[in-house]
């Protein structure tokens, strides 16, 4: 049977839980059945994994979901959190295709290995994984995450004599693809303090990087061409910041190779979440590694600045206090916080807002301490956007009922900061259907830098093996 594997969508979550339930039926009578039946997949965790791009669905010839796989990052390696196929679609290679898909994603992302927990006595469990390159892990070699899983399984009454954890070592993609994250940002406040002779505005802002964003696939081409291999509606390849970033790097570094660039857009475009800028920064950082240009962070940030005011912070990969046009950055240690990010589905043009006559562009400078004390939280664009974009105003009003809602950048997306993830999830769950909401964590170090570390380690490992 042929199947197509695609990223899962949030509206498929219930279907995936039905698939899990149906697949579990095969364990009725097995000693593991009571603990499986007692602990179905958590709906919230599944939704988060889908939004993070960590779940893929296998569609049968009729386009119906027949199985899925979900992964989770654990101690720097990838764990298969769940893999299920409808019993009616069993023995047709769908499970194997899903497993290979997850392993390919992990290998392209630079992870060294994939782990999973399974049952030693069930033919479609441990023996199946062994056929796909997984080996049982000696309990003395358990990582802290596996020790925790083991203890948790014991607590929930799992038949531990049948429990086995397995690992598969990964090889770099044979087709040369690599994957890189491009996280979104929030502006925790934004003040405009002046206008420069070139028309650009002097501003002050705090950039908070998130653990959620776009994903790019890159591979080197030998013929010097730079090609975007996915369509982005409304953005022709020539004007896409990813293509412009690759060209700029090549010119500057004086190297001749080319690249293919695939883009999985998740960050709403023109939403004030910096998606295009982050994509550009990811291309600069990733191609600097893949093309072996050896430019340092300062040189890459300077190239980024030429592409857009928001690019340098993504290149440097730290949440930061920013001045100038956004390029003078001071890394800022921010407390652990969670965010409901609300998308009113309205494109707000940044250039037009910066030109608005009613924009306050001569505010007195704020200080880092006034931000840290919670005194400075305003966004200079909010009154202008509210007046010009009633839909954004309505979304701000709705989110404002749950706490102090703030616009990010020039909008139209907005956010609410919470102390716990559960609080953010509770608000997101009530979001009216005309808006989109999701939950993200603030990070102090960009997932892009973690990916760079992984890819460095993977290429060093490939050289020595
Ligand atoms: C407002 C902010 C806040 O983070 O974010 P977004 O809403 O775009 O995410 C940024 O300053 C946006 O940065 P970015 O989106 O990279 O802007 P650019 O491409 O460099 O500029 C787009 C246009 O905005 C105006 N612009 C931008 C930055 C700035 N400091 N002053 C300006 O006047 C210019 O007219 C410029 O032509
Ligand atoms: N790779 C890209 N992703 C998103 N937008 C892009 C990209 N390349 C160019 N653009 C253009 O940049 C504009 C601003 O996009 P984006 O960075 O997502 O929003 P914002 O600047 O509001 O944070 C888009 O409307 C689009 O025309």
TrEMBL record:
Q: Which reaction does it catalyse?
A: 4-CDP-2-C-methyl-D-erythritol + ATP = 4-CDP-2-C-methyl-D-erythritol 2-phosphate + ADP + H(+)
Does the keyword Kinase feature in the UniProt annotation?
yes
Superkingdom, according to UniProt? Bacteria
Record-annotated residues binding ATP? 268-278
State the active site: 185, 310
Q: Extract the Gene3D superfamilies matched here.
A: 3.30.230.10, 3.40.630.30, GHMP kinase, C-terminal domain
Its EC number(s): 2.7.1.148
* MF term (GO), any: 4-(cytidine 5'-diphospho)-2-C-methyl-D-erythritol kinase activity
**What InterPro entries does UniProt report for this protein, alphabetically?**
Acyl_CoA_acyltransferase, GHMP_kinase_C_dom, GHMP_kinase_C_sf, GHMP_kinase_N_dom, GNAT_dom, IspE, Ribosomal_Su5_D2-typ_SF, Ribsml_uS5_D2-typ_fold_subgr
- In which pathway is this protein known to take part? Isoprenoid biosynthesis; isopentenyl diphosphate biosynthesis via DXP pathway; isopentenyl diphosphate from 1-deoxy-D-xylulose 5-phosphate: step 3/6
Looking at the keywords, is DNA-binding present?
Answer: no
Q: Which UniProt keywords apply?
A: ATP-binding, Isoprene biosynthesis, Kinase, Nucleotide-binding, Transferase
Report the coiled-coil segments: none
User: For the N-acetyltransferase domain, which residue ranges apply?
Assistant: 3-153
Give the similarity note.
Answer: Belongs to the GHMP kinase family. IspE subfamily.
Supply the PANTHER family for this chain: 4-DIPHOSPHOCYTIDYL-2-C-METHYL-D-ERYTHRITOL KINASE, CHLOROPLASTIC
Function noted in UniProt: Catalyzes the phosphorylation of the position 2 hydroxy group of 4-diphosphocytidyl-2C-methyl-D-erythritol.
Query: NCBIfam families in the record, alphabetically?
Result: ispE
Q: What is this protein called?
A: 4-diphosphocytidyl-2-C-methyl-D-erythritol kinase
* Native source species: Rhodanobacter geophilus
Name of the gene:
ispE
